[in-house]
Amino acid sequence: MSGQSVDSYYSAIKEAIENGNVAEAKIEVIGLIKQDLAAQALLAIKKARAAKLFTAKELEFEAAYCHFTLGSYDDAKKALKKVTASKAVTHLLAQIAYKSDDYAECVNLYEELLRDTDKESEEYQDLLLNQSAAKAAALQSAQSAGEQRPTEEHGSSYELMFNAATDLLVRGRIAEAADLLEMAATQARSSLASEGWSQEDIEGEVAPIEAQRGVALQTQGKTAEARAVFSRLLADKSLEGSARDIVAHNAAVLSISEYARRDIALDRVKRALQLPGSATRQLSRAQRALMRFNMAVVQFSQGQYASARRSLSRLSKSYSDIPNASAGTLSAAISLHLGSVDKALNELATISRSQQPSDAVFATLAAAQVAISAGDNQRALDVLTAWKDRAEGVSLGSLSAADQFARYYFGIVQLIGWLSGSRMSSTAPDAAKHLYTQVSKPGTYSARLLAAVGDCLALAGEPDAAKSCFNQAKQAAAEQNADVGTLGSTCLHAVLASGDNGAHQMSIAQLLKGYSRRSRVTRVIPGVRIRVSRQYQPKSSNASAGDGARSKKSAAAAKQPVKAKPQEGSRTKKYRASRQRRLAKNPPKNYDPERKPDSERWIPLRQRSYYKPRGRNRKQLKMRGGAQGGASEAGAGLGVTGSARIAGHIDGSQTPGHDSDDDHHEDSAAKNPQQTSGAGHSKSKGGKGGKKGGKKGGKGKRGW
């Protein structure tokens, strides 16, 4: 059959129809589809209809499948509207939804199919496999498909283990995902070896699982193990196409922090981070967007701020529908390095307003720092006050890191009081009481949160409420099997050690002795540095009584005559004036007073973004044939999950064939690349065949 031409198929179809055998004609059409000749099969159907051999609705499902195979998803949907509803139609609609990136609809369609399928059948396992891949993709793209449960049902199938691990990665359960991926790799090797697969084919099937495990290790901070996994995968060439490019990208991301100060190494990393050309068609938009963002990060690390700005501009134009929280921070850092302080401040203030209060803490503190450094204390006060007003509406019980948020809230409220010039304001007690009111509501709160609120109460001068809160924290720690010493509290032991005889006031007074405003800022707010906190307290024109000696000394110094600064020598003035006259009469070659200086003039010519090699080097570059390499916090990787290719078999009589929180700073945060999604994509069940059988699908056929 494989040696026949399209005309011979059409002749067979025509002969079958003339003999009244429509079923045989359908078999001939399906034969074309089975040989991956979807375009020819669609042409044969159209010819048969034009010759009035078929009615308008006959072979409509096969035509829809041909459109699906060719990527014409809208035409496939139109064709399916003419077909009577059936299980096969629903299955094909689920595949179309996945290919159209409508993962939420895909999950719902597979849920409908699973309800009508026997759990003991092989078909149920195939559907469950595809649904798990759709769930992982939906989570990654932030699509909601109702109340999604983690894919816990994986049994002994390594494909389901893979997709369940991908699901766990998206949900942040990294350690569980790494263990499950290791189990999946072991299970894949044993099951495929028992089926008679060759060692080369087995390694090709296990490679995506190992790549995803490398991502999990990289996310956990185990960079040495992750680098070993990526190096092994790149060396044995078991991955192909975009999967190999993604792993190369992950390996390059690991090198960014290692060679942060070595421009030559960063050039090599930059080449590896290049988008992999035609292979990007197989990558998701989220993957391509984060790859482009990583390139901007490397350009920023090299001091190529203009190039990094252009990369961010292209990112916002081409991928405006994909949010990237770090892009705004990087843009603000670029503005600061280019001297545009107002622009950087506006960008940080915009991020502070647009993000949730729990996510906007860094941008808020960074904006306040920039404003204070520029001498605009009122702007800093406005940014902090706007964040405080929104933060007061946040429920602490709904946050994953509620203890850290409580400390930030308490510290920022103190900054607001100090920036407003009211030294004896009640902002700190009010903030502590607000937090105490939050944890006093019915609900379950972590011991760390209760300890953090207790610290705020103690520092605000509320010892009774602090003691009550610390007792609750101690009780919660016992219930949660946590050690009291690991709660991160600075006042818990001192407050609980004091009795009820009135001595607790003295204990807290001793605890806070010498606790200056500057140290209070640095201890309460983890993200503020000492050199920054010195600027947070504005100078007051009225000296306090305690500063009397200092004021007298300053007044005495003010009465003494001030020595005049040495004047610039007349000889220097003459030389400067004559030089300016010479330049005005005979300007240098190609001098243009309107031209702005090149922002990259301080770096070597070969490292500038606009450099084009000439001669022999240019010829070698052409011979290499385009970008090299291809597959983001430093030390992360190409993301948590990827998309699955669902090119499965559709059963039915009609079918053809599935930074550290302790040191927040805009520069350091902006230099951290992010993980691009999908070092190992989710697996999905293929059609009949596989590596041992037909060309399409097969058990374990991975989709990239």
Automatic annotation (TrEMBL):
Q: Which GO terms describe its molecular function?
A: 7S RNA binding; identical protein binding; ribosome binding
Its GO CC terms are: endoplasmic reticulum; signal recognition particle, endoplasmic reticulum targeting
Q: Where is the composition biased (Basic residues)?
A: 572-584, 609-622, 682-704
Subcellular location, record wording = Cytoplasm; Endoplasmic reticulum
Regarding protein family, the annotation reads: Belongs to the SRP72 family.
Lineage of the native species?
Eukaryota, Fungi, Fungi incertae sedis, Zoopagomycota, Kickxellomycotina
- Mark out the compositionally biased spans (Low complexity): 543-564
Question: Could you tell me which residues belong to the region Disordered?
Answer: 532-704
Q: Indicate yes or no for the key word Endoplasmic reticulum.
A: yes
Q: Which PANTHER family match?
A: SIGNAL RECOGNITION PARTICLE 72, SIGNAL RECOGNITION PARTICLE SUBUNIT SRP72
- InterPro entries xrefs: Signal_recog_part_SRP72_RNA-bd, SRP72, TPR-4, TPR-like_helical_dom_sf, TPR_rpt
Predominant place of localization: cytoplasm
GO BP of this protein: SRP-dependent cotranslational protein targeting to membrane
In which domain of life is the source organism classified?
A: Eukaryota
Where is there biased composition of kind Basic and acidic residues? 591-603, 658-669
The record's keywords, sorted A to Z, are: Cytoplasm, Endoplasmic reticulum, Ribonucleoprotein, Signal recognition particle
Can you name this protein? Signal recognition particle subunit SRP72
- Every copy of the Signal recognition particle SRP72 subunit RNA-binding domain together lies at 558-613
